[in-house]
Amino acid sequence: MEDYFAFMGFPRRLSLDAGELQRRYFDLSRKYHPDFHTHDEEPGRQTSLEQSSVLNQAYRTLKDRNERARHLLWLEWPDLPESEKKKIPPALLMEVMEMQEKIADAGSEVDESRKAALQGELLDIEARLKTKMGDLDGTLDALATEWDGIADGGDADARRNLLTRLNTLLNTRNYLRTLLATIDAAVRGGQGVRH
Amino acid sequence: MASLLQIDLGPGRKRRVVGIDLGTTNSLVAYIDEHDQPGVIGADGDGIVPSVIAVLGQGDVVVGRRAKEHLFTDTEKTVYSVKRLMGKSYNDVERDTHLLSYRLAPRREGLVRVEIAGTEYTPIELSAMILRDLKARAEEHFGETVTAAVITVPAYFNDAQRQATKDAGKLAGLDVLRILNEPTAAALAYGLDQERKGTVAVYDLGGGTFDISILRLEGGVYQVLATGGDTYLGGDDIDQAIMTRLRSELAEQHGVAEVTPQELQQIRDAAERAKQALSTAEEIAMEFTLADHAVTFHRAFRRDELEEIAGPIIERTMEPCRRALRDAGLAAAGIDAVVLVGGSTRMPLVKQRVGEIFEREPFDSLNPDEVVALGAAIQADVLSGNRRDTLLLDVVPLSLGIETVGGMMSVLIPRNTTIPTQVRDHYTTFVDNQTGININVYQGEREFVRDNRQLAAFTLGPLPPLPAGMPKIEVAFTIDADGILRVKAKDMRTGTEQEIDVRPSYGLTEDEVERMLRESIERAQDDINERMVVEARTEAETLIQAATKTVEKHADLVEAGERERIEEIIGRMREAMHGGDHRLIREITEELDHVTEPLAQRVMNDSVQKGIGQKKIEEV
Q: Average of pLDDT values for B298-322?
């Protein structure tokens, strides 16, 4: 995978100006897009196809702050162990178990009023999880300020500590998303998250 | 012509590339004129070429308005709505075959083929016939050969349908520089007009397909945010729903249970006309005569009845609209304008429903028939290097993934990803000395691959015998700017690369396209005699059947000696049909036709009078 920050000429920061990102995306598209290389000889057309593909992927990744953070983490800590990437945050474990129990109960409950009560409780859990999700946005803001503050400096330990916290945050967020989708599927019949 | 040509091209204009809207009902070809404005070739509405092909004999192909005339006379040799068959299997179209007045080749699997007078044609070949006609029109207009084109397809067309369209272009002798999405083309034409900007929804309901695309327009950039649709939903479905109602009325009121292909065509024509007329009229009088049954059918048709029939079909366009909004991350209020494209959007009910879902009055002052072709011409201009200010960023309409454990779909490229795009995936072996790895590629949104469309199946290998998990193969899945998949595999241990041809699992290989090209020429030359014999025999047989049936059914109208005369000719005809002289067969066919004419006339008069009571024929 490429360094999307470098590809689009940005420093490795968690904050990024959306307007500037879009401007660069359009400018680089005019440069790389196959539409402007139809008359090129090979390998020119192939290069345009590949550069343009990387650009589209880079834009898509950098545009979303969470994807951007995930990409930065990957670049800064390429040998982060697989197990660390998917670790379930302990703080969520209780929540998960309670939720799963209720979903199973609601599924097998035949009594309509008790089923409705269980679904109501699931909605309460959903509300709590959504609040947590909102809190994470605030935490990411704080982490971004901290990371962009030390920029390319700071000692190795401080950087590693920051990246560890970033990893936990991203894992938690991912996990919350899955939980919310599971509740949505159970309560409203929405589509679960595909793995 | 040379000097005229140069003036026409304008100073500094590069290669001539035309834009083609290959539609279900109508097709058009457009270009950019010397004032940089897009225009349709063929003035005064003459630019609209009905997408109808009459294959009257080998090498005798008629397209467009002239072919439409053959719908009633050579019903089984005249094909319409071929776009609905592009890239489709028999399963896909099964439910509608009884409503087609031409025949599909009798087979159960693989891609659909049309059978005309004993010869099978792929939808690709038939589409190529339309494209050849459009190419010829453009060449006549410019006085020079045209070799390159941009061809539009519904945004929701899958990989197989796009590839089929590209193959059709190739077969017609066109270098297809781009397969362009129809709503995107429409947005190009809309945006060029007064340099509009903002977030635009393009609602495109054509003859056979439906698309919804949401785009952001800004400073010459056309960025597609989301797209959705249904490639088997359009005006044809409304026609068929009307036909179904008419047929049940014919059965109830006139006892007509089965109809001939010609009669089916008449019913289809009546249904289509009624639908179109009711876009402006509140009520019309419908009337047609089924010659073979000698039944004249008439009834009043009101707009509210049409809307009751069409309502459920139009309703099916609503969910894709809602999903496209969701995918774009927008609410209806976030849409600045709604553009209507496609002939079916002329229906007041469509305008009303679109207005309701997007909470604003749709913009309908563009010509819904021409706007796609005009947009294709603009994109053609971009690709020929004349227009650097326009940038088009389109998306892939369907998710692309591979089959994993338990038949699940593992998505590699989600829908609405901007194209071109590429993902790399890594594969290895599960058992020792495994010589190959099977990869199945699918397109669609469902969780299990069996519910999605298979695009390709290929095997990575042959691999050298190694312990399980040792081989490391990187596969790059690329979706190019046409929305078509390309696959490349790389052995990470040796570094050897391999381009994988993913097309044979559904489309045509380069070899097949070449063979078809060759055959189409050979057929026309070498087999012409044989084909003409087959043709003549078929026609003769049809007439014999008709004559025999009439003589039996209307014995009371047969005059003295007439039966004997007819039987004598049929005897001679049967003999001639065993031989290979198509001229002799045709001669006798004409004789029989001539001799049975008075009887046919009497039968007609008789039935018409029975049908309408005591009215005179002149009053009908």
A: 96
